[in-house]
Structure formats: C-alpha cells, structure tokens
Specification:
This protein has 290 residues and is α/β, with parallel strands linked by helices. Helix content is 51%, strand content 12%. Helix 7 packs across helix 11.
C-alpha cells in the first residue's frame, strides 16, 4: 500500500468544512489517521460514527506533538484560543492551516499566539460551503473543482506552503493565492456584503406583523436572494466583525447605490433605472463561476 501523504491529521471542528476536509483526504487515501476535536460531544460521536474521524481527541497538547497537519475549521472567533492551546506543543514538522472566511484577523492571531512558530501556519480559505452545518452535512466531494485561497505568510517556507497546498489539492480543490489584505477586500464585496444584505432583508420581514402573508407569496426570486440567510448566525457574526473595516466600506458604497436608485425611482426616471438594470444584467450574464 502507498504511504499516505499525512500520517496524522487533527481537525478542530468536524462540521461541514472540517468534516468534508477529512472525508476528502480519506477518499484520496492521503491520510492515515484523523483525530477530531470540538465543543459538542454528540457532534464528535456522530463524526466518528460517520467515519469522518478515527477517534475523538482528549488532549490537544499531546495530539499536536506528532501531527503532520492541523486544520482549524471552527468559527474564526475561536481560532486564537485554539492557537494558544496548541502553540507550546507543536511538533517541529507540524503544519497548521484553517478554513476561515477572513484572513487578516487570523494572521494577527497567528503572530500573537504562535510567535516564533508562525512559519508553521499557512492560512487558507476554501470557497465552498452550504447552508447546512454539522457533521452530517460533511461530504467528500465538497471541494472538488472549488477554489481554495492561500494567503501565505512571509515566514512560510516554500516547502510548508507546498505541503498545505497538496492537502487541499488532494481534496480536489483549485489553489489560488492572495495577500491576506487582498483576500479580505475581495470577499467583503462578493461574499460578506451579500450575506449581510440577505440577513437584513429576512430580518426586516421577520419584524412585520404580516410576515406569514408575505412569505406565502414569496417565490423563486426571494428564495434565491435569501438562500444564504439560512447560514450559521454564529459563523457570520464572527465573519462580519472580523472583516468589519472592509465590510463597512462596501456597505457604504451599496448605500450610495441604493440612494441613487431611490432618487431615480422617486423622480420617475425610467431611463436611469433601465440603464442601471441593463449594466447589472450585462455583467451578471457575462459572469461564469470558475
């Protein structure tokens, strides 16, 4: 039998992101053993029963000493504490990556908590997901053909980056690289703002006395726009706060756009409205997800 690329992988957070990472490595025969950690014993037990992990970790310090790779797949707000727990016990060859949707805050935590071991952390963001969460939502093909953005640190060696890249590639992902600042600016515009807007629209309707009547007539347009409002509130709270500066900039631009559209609507400016819709339609029609 071929020796797996990674003898031992630790996953903190065995839900959709972490669980799918483990299942994908298993399917690729790229991992020997997966050890899972998490806040919920029932979720960890479910992950073991589903074959996502081999065993439930009991002592993060002891496990980290001989792990080849550690994935932090928790909400971003929990990552600093996890780094602090494992930092003193990391093996010399142990690498860490993450699945966080923001990167500047993760990088700050790396320097603050790992210090001289920062070179062992290669930040990542898999651009894949679903509205479902938990171990039962994990699937081996989640990352197939999907983007994973690496935001390497200056301290990372080429070998460390290549090894983390190989792990994500074993999951079927296509690798891209950005700086952590570039990453957060991009995703504030195309991911974090859309989620904020979707949550805001549904929250607005939730406050209305006639919400049941409104929803009874909602159709595909409402469904498509609000699909992402079914995502994890805890996760998106952390993402929005972690990337608040870039997100606030995007929100102000969007408010300015709405103000212009409101003025055109109030003035009965059909030409302005049509031109706005046409420009948007042309860009959307020409966009293909790659």
């Amino acid at each position: 039998m071929t020796t797996p690329q990674f003898k031992k992988v630790i996953v903190f957070g065995v839900g959709l992101i972490g669980g799918s990472f483990a299942l994908a490595l298993r399917k690729a025969n790229a991992v020997g053993e997966v050890v899972g950690f998490g806040r919920s014993e029932s979720t960890l037990q479910q992950a073991r029963q589903l074959g996502i992990i081999d065993r439930i970790g009991q002592d993060a310090a002891a496990e980290a000493a001989d792990a080849d790779l550690i994935l932090l797949a928790t909400p971003v707000g929990q990552m600093a504490e996890l780094m602090a727990r494992i930092a003193p016990h990391l093996g010399a060859h142990t690498l860490i990556t993450d699945g966080g949707s923001t990167k500047s805050d993760v990088v700050r935590a790396v320097y603050a908590q790992l210090g001289g071991k920062a070179a062992q952390f290669v930040p990542a963001h898999p651009i894949a997901g679903a509205e479902l969460s938990g171990a039962a939502a994990a699937r081996a093909d989640l990352y197939v053909g999907k983007k994973v953005v690496l935001t390497p640190l200056p301290e990372n060696t080429p070998e460390a980056v290549a090894r983390v890249q190989a792990a994500w590639q074993a999951c079927g992902a296509n690798i891209h690289r950005l700086t952590h600042a570039e990453h957060d600016a991009v995703f504030a515009a195309v991911s974090h703002l859309p989620h904020l807007l979707s949550f805001a629209l549904v929250h607005d309707l939730a406050q209305r006395d006639n919400r049941d009547l409104l929803l009874s007539f909602a159709a595909s347009g409402f469904r498509d726009f609000t699909r992402i409002a079914a995502s994890s509130p805890e996760m998106w709270r952390d993402i929005c706060l972690a990337n608040r500066e870039a997100l606030l900039q995007e929100l102000q631009l969007y408010i300015a756009e709405l103000t212009q559209m409101s003025a055109a609507l109030a003035a009965g400016d059909a030409a302005r409205l049509e031109q706005t819709f046409r420009t948007a339609r042309e860009l959307r029609a020409g966009w293909t997800e790659q």
